[in-house]
Design a protein that fits this description.
By secondary structure, the chain is an alpha+beta fold. The protein has eight helices and four strands, in the order ααααβαβαβαβα. It is found in: Nucleus, Nucleolus.
Amino acid sequence: MAREKQLEPEPEVAPERSYQGLLGNLNPIARPLASRKLTRKLYKCIKKAAKQKQIRRGVKEVQKFINKGEKGIIVLAGDTLPIEVYCHIPIMCEDRSLPYAYIPSKSDLGAAGGSKRPTCVIMIKPHEEYQEAYEECLEEVGSLPVPL
């Protein structure tokens, strides 16, 4: 009995899933996919933006603010199913020339945004507190190849 209680905390601390392991769950539309390095930079930028309340989270909210003309970087989760939930967002971004990128995990995206729930779309708005990190991410996401 005492051994079971000692062993319980270990499963809670799940080993961090590798980037390569997460790539197996991607949707066919998950292009352009951020590299491992860019994914980490985007997570850091999202965390900084969440502290300043400068993110938009979720399909409905992001879609509403894209339609209103708000600028920012759109980060989409590549493992969201069904893809019909958010497959219109990249088209909206291309129409308004907003940079967007896919990352492998919606649970990691939600955690970076300060939520316990997985999130399939986040918009990072610019702010002077994290301007340097935002500009770096904007440049790298903008340089990703646009899918045909």
